[in-house]
Amino acid sequence: MARDGKAARIAFIQRIQHRMAVTGLSQQELAAKIGAVQSSLSDQLNPTKQGYLSGHAIMRLPPALGCAYRWLFEGRGPEVDTDTPPTVATVDAYLSGLADVERCIADLKARVTPPRPRRVP
Asked: In the chain, how many domains are there?
């Protein structure tokens, strides 16, 4: 099972590197586009290191690389969306909206008190 995880990680890295070559982006340029530091991206692209980008940076990869989400993350489907692909700004707005929803849910949970158990005489 761990072997499959490592193979999937290497394939993911290869897809990122392929799109970097297609777009002509350096690690420094890609890191800037996704809001990460270059060293974190470098660690993510090194299969011998346990580098991890933030969830926000990962979600910004496809629009920054000009490719389809499913192709980048799963290796399935067309490399480039036939529809208009989302931009980094669109992804940021979506993620910001999710953060707002999470804050609202946390606020509602804080306001709701669980019912008290009834005492049976």
From this structure: 1
